[in-house]
Write a structure and sequence with these properties.
Radius of gyration: 14 Å
Protein name: PRC-barrel domain containing protein
Order of helices and strands: HEEEHHEEEE
Shape: globular
Number of helices: 3
Helix content: 10-25%
Number of strands: 7
CATH topology: SH3 type barrels
CATH class: Mainly Beta
Strand order of the largest sheet: 1-2-3-4-7
CATH architecture: Roll
Structural class: alpha+beta
């Protein structure tokens, strides 16, 4: 089991297999497995940033404005769909179509 410093991952740009940008890792969901914490998924995109900041009323306001402009993206990516062997340069291991996107 590899150990990584989450501080090195949060805020990093995730690149797709073709080298384009999917967005930045803004939040990481952890689950406890006995005495260890494991990454279950990465949250990527502007709404994930708002989620990370834990602002409750702001998301609705921002979502309304951003949806009108088509910029409100939020991807939930399973732990096994991102290569974080180089935490400063995370890469998507699957096709973008396989990523769960939320609006």
């Amino acid at each position: 089991m590899a150990q990584i410093n989450i501080d090195l991952i949060v805020g990093r740009q995730v690149l797709t297999p073709d080298g384009s940008s999917l967005g930045r890792i803004e939040a990481i969901k952890l689950v406890q497995d006995h005495d260890a914490w494991m990454i279950s998924e990465f949250h990527i995109g502007p709404s994930a940033l708002v989620e990370r900041l834990a602002v409750r009323w702001l998301p609705r306001l921002l979502r309304d404005v951003a949806q009108r402009k088509g910029r409100w993206r939020h991807h939930r990516i399973s732990w096994n769909q991102i290569d974080v062997s180089d935490p400063r340069h995370p890469r998507l291991l699957c096709d973008v179509a396989d990523v769960r996107g939320l609006a």
